[in-house]
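Supplementary Text 2. Reproducibility record for the structural model of the 84-residue chain.

All settings were left at their defaults, and a single model was retained for analysis rather than an ensemble. We include the record here because the model underlies the residue-level annotations in Supplementary Table 4.
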Amino acid sequence: MRLGARWRAGDPPHPGVPEALHAEIAAQEAKHPAAAAWTLTWLEGRPRCELDGPDGLLVTVTLSPAGAPTTEEPPGEDDDDWLE
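Retained model, structure tokens:
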């Protein structure tokens, strides 16, 4: 079992965050300078780092099954256009 962690945006990543995610974490912090904090959780053995901003979740950085960093942004408000 792996425990999660939380750290402030702008601080070095928590020691539990794999080195493969550090560059993408830094890139997302540069893209979202008002971000507040990161939360590290584990899902199916893979790390998930979620960046929280003043208005909620901004982005999730994780590793693909092949071990490559991937970034997921939550759906925007206009993503339900297909309903019309």
